[in-house]
C-alpha cells in the first residue's frame, strides 16, 4: 500500500503554506505562496480572501506533486491560521464582503475606546479572558457592520457569515455556497472576544455588548474532530483539525503538560504556556486563551504573552535601513562586534504588547555615541528579542507560580544561533529547538492525524519530538542583571510618546 | 579555442552602463544605449537579476546594480543565509538517518561548521557551529575539495596531518578520492578523523551550479557503514536527497 501522509495548511499573515508530513512527523514536501498586503490607509491592513483561497488551490496540488502523492494518500488535512483576522462573506454567492481585516489593523481604535466606556465593559475580560483591544475580532465585525450600508440587516437574516481564516477555508473546501460547513474551533473562537472562556460557547452578553448578530457566527467545535470532507482542491480528504497558529505551535511542540512552554519567533513572538484544564487569570499583562481541545476531552488552557516585533525589527533593519540584504546576514554583522557598545533598541513600532500593553509607546534607539557602528546596532536588534522574551517569561512565572525550566523555541528566527544563545543567556535557562521548526504546520498535522486515528495518542506524538539543537546559558550573572536594568530603563523611555488626543493611526 | 560568447559581452556592457550612469535605467534605455533589441536587453537583464547582479526597482521598474555584485569579494552566499535556507532539509535528514547532521563551507583551508543538527536520540550533545574541521579527513571536506577549486588548491601544497591510521596523508591519493567523489556525487569517510567514526556528505549548489557548501551526516562507523566500511546505500541516498533539496531552494538544481 502506498505511504500515507497528513497535510497541513498554514494560512499565515504573509503566506499560505502547504506541508505534507509522514508518520514520523517528518516534513516530506513544502509549497507556499505569498499574498498581497493591502494598506488602504495608515494603520489599516487588509487581505483579499479570494486571493488566499486561490493560493490554497495552488499550493496543495504543488505539495502533492512534490511528494509524488495523490489525494487518496492524504489521511487528513489540518489547518493552522493567522488569528483574529476577520472575514465576512455572502452565504449565497460565497463572495467576500470587502477585504479581510487583518489582526494588525488599528482602525477600531476609536470604537474600542468608546466600547471601553460603555456599561458592561468590565465583563469582557472576565468572560472572554482577553483585554478589550483592537487586536481581536469582535470590534472588527462591529466596524464592518457599522460601515457597510444594509449589512447589519443581512447579517441578522443569516445572509452574511463571519469567520476567521480557518472558517473561510473550511467553508470553501467543504463546498462553499453549495453546502459548505460553517465552523470554527475553540482556539480561534477564544480570540474573538465573543466566546465565554468557561462554557466554550458564544456568550449572549458579549454578543449584545459588541452588537454582533448570532446568526452570522460559525459553530464552535473542538480543535480536533472531522468537520467535513473536502469537495474541492483535494476531494474526499477529511478536514480533521483547525487551530490558531500559536496554539498549533504549542501542539506541534507537544507541550501537553502544565508548565510546558514554547515560543515561536516570527515577525513577532508568541510565548504560550500550557496551564492545564482550568483557565489561569493573569495579573501581569498576559492573555488567557484556549490551548486546544481534543474531541470530547476537556479543553486545555494556556497563558499567552505576545511580543509585537521581533523578526520584524530585522526586516526593518534590512528594508528600512538597508544595512543588510537578507535577514540572516544580521547574524554575520552582529558577530563583527563583541557587544552592543552601550546601545539599545526598543522596537515599540506600534506600541508595546505583553507585558506592558502601552499603545502610546513608540520605538527608540538609546545610548548612541560616535563609537556605535552598524555592528552594534545589529547586536542591539537581536538583543531586543532576548530581553522582550525575558519580560514575558518573568510575567508568566509570576502568574503561573511555576518557574520555567527550559524554553522550546521554534519559528524562522531559530536559525539564528546568536539570537538563540542570547535568549538562553538572558533567561538563564536552556533553549531547545525541535527537529521540525515548522511547528505551526506540524501542530495542525498532529491534530488532524489524531482526529482520524493516523496517530494513536499524545504519547506517540511526544515520542516524535526530538531535540535538534540546545543553547545553554553562558552569561555572567552580574552582566545579565546590569544589562536587564539598562533594557528596562530603555523601555521606560518609550512610554508616553504619543500624547493623549493624538490619533496614532493618523500620524505619519 | 572557441570565440567570445556574445551574451557575456553584452551582459558585461549592461553592467558597465549601469555602473557609469545615474544608476537606474529602464530596459528600453539599456536597449537603445547598446543597440540591442528590446527583448534581448530584457532577457539579459532578467538573467542578471536572477543571479543578483542587477535589481529592479519595484516602483519605477528601472534596473540598477545588484547587491550581490557589491559583495562579490566577500563570498557568494552568507553562511547564516545558507543555514536559514537549509534548516528544514537538514532536520529532515537527521530525522530520516537518525544521525547528527552538519553543513560546512570552505574557510581558510578548513571546513567551517555553519549548521549542526543533533542526533535525534535526545542524548546530551554540544552545538559545534563555528568549529573548524580538516578538509582531508572529513566527508564534508572531501565533498568540498572535489567541487571547489579553492578548497582543492588549499590542500595541494600542504602536509596532510594524520589524525588516525585511516587518515589520507598522500596528496595523490586524496586527488584520486576527489575524482571518485565527483563521479559518485557524494563523499565518505570512515575512521579518518577519529577511530570508530564515519561520515557521508554531498555538495550543495547555488546558482549556476557553484558549490557553496556541503551537507552530511556522521556517527559510529558500524551504523554508517557495512562490514567492508562502505556507507549504507540508504544513508547515502538520504544525504544526496537533502543536498539536492537545499540546492533546489538555492536555485542550483541540476536540470
Automatic annotation (TrEMBL), chain A:
It is an enzyme of class 2 (transferase). It catalyses: glycerol + ATP = sn-glycerol 3-phosphate + ADP + H(+). Glycerol binds at residues 83-84, 135, 245-246. Keywords: ATP-binding, Glycerol metabolism, Kinase, Nucleotide-binding, Transferase. Residues 6-252 form the Carbohydrate kinase FGGY N-terminal domain. One of its GO terms (biological process) is glycerol-3-phosphate metabolic process. The keyword ATP-binding applies. Pathway: Polyol metabolism; glycerol degradation via glycerol kinase pathway; sn-glycerol 3-phosphate from glycerol: step 1/1. GO terms for cellular component: cytosol. It holds the Pfam family FGGY_C. ADP binds at residues 13, 17, 267, 311, 412. GO terms for molecular function: ATP binding; glycerol kinase activity. Sn-glycerol 3-phosphate binds at residues 13, 83-84, 135, 245. Its EC number is 2.7.1.30. Inhibited by fructose 1,6-bisphosphate (FBP). It comes from the Bacteria. ATP binds at residues 13-15, 267, 311, 315, 412. Key enzyme in the regulation of glycerol uptake and metabolism. Catalyzes the phosphorylation of glycerol to yield sn-glycerol 3-phosphate. Belongs to the FGGY kinase family. NCBIfam families: glycerol_kin, PRK00047.1. PANTHER family: GLYCEROL KINASE, SUGAR KINASE. This is Glycerol kinase. The lineage of its organism: Bacteria, Bacillati, Actinomycetota, Actinomycetes, Streptosporangiales. The gene is glpK.
Automatic annotation (TrEMBL), chain B:
Keywords: DNA-binding, Glycerol metabolism, Transcription, Transcription regulation. It comes from the Bacteria. Residues 5-67 form the HTH iclR-type domain. GO terms for biological process: glycerol metabolic process; negative regulation of DNA-templated transcription. InterPro entries: GAF-like_dom_sf, HTH_MetabolicPath_Reg, Tscrpt_reg_IclR_C, Tscrpt_reg_IclR_N, WH-like_DNA-bd_sf, WH_DNA-bd_sf. GO terms for molecular function: DNA binding; DNA-binding transcription factor activity. The keyword Transcription applies. Gene3D superfamilies: 3.30.450.40, Winged helix-like DNA-binding domain superfamily/Winged helix DNA-binding domain (1.10.10.10). Residues 68-252 form the IclR-ED domain. May be an activator protein for the gylABX operon. This is Glycerol operon regulatory protein. It comes from Actinomadura livida. The lineage of its organism: Bacteria, Bacillati, Actinomycetota, Actinomycetes, Streptosporangiales.
Amino acid at each position: 500500500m502506498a505511504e500515507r501522509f497528513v497535510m497541513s495548511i498554514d494560512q499565515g499573515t504573509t503566506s499560505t503554506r502547504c506541508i505534507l508530513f509522514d508518520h514520523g512527523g517528518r516534513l516530506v514536501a513544502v509549497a507556499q505562496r505569498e499574498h498581497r498586503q493591502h494598506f488602504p490607509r495608515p494603520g489599516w491592513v487588509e487581505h483579499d480572501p479570494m486571493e488566499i483561497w486561490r493560493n490554497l488551490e495552488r499550493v496543495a496540488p504543488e505539495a502533492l506533486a512534490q511528494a509524488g502523492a495523490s489525494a487518496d494518500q492524504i489521511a487528513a488535512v489540518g489547518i493552522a491560521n493567522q488569528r483574529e483576522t476577520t472575514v465576512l462573506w455572502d452565504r449565497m454567492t460565497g463572495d467576500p464582503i470587502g477585504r479581510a481585516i487583518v489582526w494588525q489593523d488599528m482602525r477600531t481604535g476609536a470604537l474600542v475606546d468608546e466600547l471601553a466606556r460603555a456599561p458592561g465593559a468590565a465583563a469582557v475580560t472576565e468572560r472572554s479572558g482577553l483585554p478589550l483591544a483592537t487586536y481581536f475580532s469582535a470590534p472588527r465585525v462591529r466596524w464592518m457592520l457599522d460601515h457597510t450600508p444594509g449589512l447589519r440587516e443581512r447579517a441578522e437574516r443569516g445572509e452574511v457569515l463571519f469567520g476567521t481564516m480557518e472558517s473561510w477555508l473550511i467553508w470553501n473546501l467543504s463546498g462553499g455556497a453549495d453546502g459548505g460547513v460553517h465552523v470554527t474551533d475553540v482556539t480561534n473562537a477564544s480570540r474573538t472576544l465573543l466566546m465565554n472562556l468557561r462554557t466554550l460557547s458564544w456568550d449572549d452578553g458579549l454578543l449584545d455588548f459588541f452588537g454582533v448578530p448570532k446568526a452570522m457566527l460559525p459553530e464552535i467545535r473542538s480543535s480536533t474532530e472531522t468537520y467535513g470532507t473536502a469537495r474541492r482542491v483535494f476531494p474526499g480528504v477529511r478536514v480533521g483539525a483547525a487551530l490558531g497558529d500559536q496554539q498549533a505551535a504549542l501542539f506541534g511542540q507537544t507541550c501537553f503538560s502544565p508548565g510546558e512552554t514554547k515560543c515561536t519567533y516570527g515577525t513577532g513572538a508568541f510565548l504560550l504556556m500550557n496551564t492545564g484544564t482550568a483557565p489561569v487569570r493573569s495579573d501581569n499583562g498576559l492573555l488567557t486563551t484556549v490551548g486546544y481541545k481534543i474531541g470530547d476531552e476537556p479543553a486545555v488552557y494556556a497563558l499567552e504573552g505576545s511580543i509585537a516585533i521581533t523578526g520584524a525589527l530585522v526586516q526593518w533593519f534590512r528594508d528600512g535601513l538597508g544595512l543588510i540584504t537578507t535577514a540572516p546576514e544580521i547574524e554575520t554583522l552582529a558577530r563583527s562586534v563583541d557587544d552592543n557598545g552601550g546601545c539599545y533598541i526598543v522596537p515599540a513600532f506600534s506600541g508595546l504588547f505583553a507585558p506592558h500593553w502601552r499603545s502610546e509607546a513608540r520605538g527608540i534607539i538609546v545610548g548612541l555615541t560616535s563609537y556605535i557602528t552598524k555592528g552594534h546596532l545589529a547586536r542591539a536588534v537581536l538583543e531586543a528579542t532576548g530581553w522582550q522574551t525575558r519580560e514575558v517569561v518573568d510575567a508568566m512565572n509570576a502568574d503561573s507560580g511555576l518557574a520555567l525550566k527550559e524554553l522550546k523555541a521554534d519559528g524562522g528566527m531559530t536559525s539564528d544561533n546568536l539570537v538563540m544563545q542570547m535568549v538562553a543567556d538572558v533567561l538563564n535557562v536552556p533553549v531547545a529547538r525541535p527537529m521540525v521548526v515548522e511547528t505551526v504546520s506540524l501542530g495542525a498535522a498532529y491534530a488532524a492525524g489524531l482526529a482520524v486515528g493516523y496517530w494513536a495518542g499524545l504519547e506517540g506524538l511526544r515520542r516524535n519530538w526530538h531535540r535538534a539543537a540546545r543553547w545553554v546559558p553562558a552569561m555572567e550573572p552580574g552582566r545579565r542583571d546590569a544589562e536587564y536594568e539598562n533594557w528596562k530603563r530603555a523601555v521606560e523611555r518609550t512610554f508616553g510618546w504619543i500624547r493623549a488626543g493624538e490619533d496614532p493611526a493618523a500620524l505619519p | 579555442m572557441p570565440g567570445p560568447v556574445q551574451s557575456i559581452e553584452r551582459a558585461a556592457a549592461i553592467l558597465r552602463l549601469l555602473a557609469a550612469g545615474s544608476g537606474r535605467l529602464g530596459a528600453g534605455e539599456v536597449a537603445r544605449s547598446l543597440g540591442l533589441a528590446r527583448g534581448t536587453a530584457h532577457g539579459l537583464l532578467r538573467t542578471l537579476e536572477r543571479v543578483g547582479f542587477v535589481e529592479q526597482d519595484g516602483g519605477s521598474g528601472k534596473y540598477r546594480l545588484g547587491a550581490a555584485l557589491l559583495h562579490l569579494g566577500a563570498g557568494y552566499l552568507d553562511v547564516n543565509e545558507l543555514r536559514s535556507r537549509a534548516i528544514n532539509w537538514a532536520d529532515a535528514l537527521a530525522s530520516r538517518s537518525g544521525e547528527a547532521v552538519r553543513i560546512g563551507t570552505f574557510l581558510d583551508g578548513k571546513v567551517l561548521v555553519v549548521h549542526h543538527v543533533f542526533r535525534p536520540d535526545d542524548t546530551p550533545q554540544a552545538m559545534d557551529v563555528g568549529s573548524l574541521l580538516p578538509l582531508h579527513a572529513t566527508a564534508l571536506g572531501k565533498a568540498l575539495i572535489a567541487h571547489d577549486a579553492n578548497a582543492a588548491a588549499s590542500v595541494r601544497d600542504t602536509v596532510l596531518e594524520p589524525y588516525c591510521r585511516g587518515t589520507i596523508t598522500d596528496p595523490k591519493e586524496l586527488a584520486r578520492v576527489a575524482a571518485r567523489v565527483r563521479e559518485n556525487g557524494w563523499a565518505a569517510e570512515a575512521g579518518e578523523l577519529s577511530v570508530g567514526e564515519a561520515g557521508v556528505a554531498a555538495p550543495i549548489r547555488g546558482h549556476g551550479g557553484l558549490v557553496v557548501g556541503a551537507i552530511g551526516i556522521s556517527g559510529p562507523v558500524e551504523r554508517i557503514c557495512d562490514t567492508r566500511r562502505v556507507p549504507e546505500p540508504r544513508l547515502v541516498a538520504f544525504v544526496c536527497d537533502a543536498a539536492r533539496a537545499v540546492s533546489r531552494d538555492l536555485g542550483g538544481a541540476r536540470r
